[in-house]
Structures are given as structure tokens and as C-alpha cells.
Write a structure and sequence with these properties.
Distance between the termini: 22 Å
Strand order of the largest sheet: 5-6-7
Number of strands: 7
Radius of gyration: 12 Å
Shape: globular
Largest sheet: 3 strands, antiparallel
Number of helices: 3
Helix content: 10-25%
Strand content: 15-25%
């Protein structure tokens, strides 16, 4: 089991996110972390778990996922190699990402397909 999952648990729904740490993209406009956008029963909901790191650079967020710092939302294409290599694994099957997103956590973590 991945290090982050051992420490914080395997989030299986949006209700489990508060028990995890998030690697968030930081808005260049406001400087605030961007919330995760998830689908639940046909509606889009947003969540912002406790933030461990917020950065505007996708590569910084991807590196933090690989290090096991926390859960993040990222595109499939960015994480495909890490998923294939087992460095990221799926989470949150009950709440798929809103169109255009995906949730990932390090292996030292896990990933949710977007």
C-alpha cells in the first residue's frame, strides 16, 4: 500500500477527502488554492481538503504527488507514465472528476482516472 494511503487512508468518496492532504494548483490571479471539482449524482461539487502544498506549476504538483505529499487533481496525460509504472494509483471511484480533471495521489500514492 502506498505511503500516503497508509498515513491518511484511501479516500473512496468526496466525504473522505478531509482526512487527506491536498496538493493544490494555486491561482495566478488570486493566489488561492483551486478547489477539486467532482461529479456526484449528476452534479458538480467542489472540495478543498487541508492543503499541504499549493503551486501554480503543474510539474511542481506532479513532483509532489510522486513524493507522497498528498492527493491532487491532474490530467490523465500528465500522469500516464506514473500510473503505468505504479507510482500513482486510483482513488475516489464514487466521485469521478468534473469534465477535464482527474485525481491523483503519489505512490508513495494513488490516482483517480479523469
Amino acid at each position: 500500500m502506498a505511503d500516503h494511503v497508509r498515513r491518511f487512508g484511501a479516500a473512496s468518496s468526496s466525504n473522505d477527502l478531509d482526512g487527506n492532504r491536498m496538493i493544490a494548483f494555486r491561482s495566478l490571479v488570486t493566489g488561492a488554492p483551486l478547489r477539486m471539482e467532482l461529479q456526484l449524482e449528476g452534479s458538480v461539487i467542489t472540495r478543498l481538503p487541508p492543503v499541504a502544498l499549493a503551486d501554480p506549476a503543474a510539474e511542481t504538483c506532479a513532483a509532489a504527488m510522486r513524493l507522497g505529499i498528498g492527493l491532487s487533481q491532474a490530467s490523465r496525460y500528465r500522469c500516464a507514465e506514473d500510473i503505468a509504472a505504479g507510482r500513482l494509483v486510483a482513488l475516489l471511484a464514487a466521485t469521478p472528476p468534473a469534465p477535464g480533471g482527474g485525481r491523483y495521489i503519489p505512490a508513495t500514492g494513488s490516482f483517480h482516472p479523469g
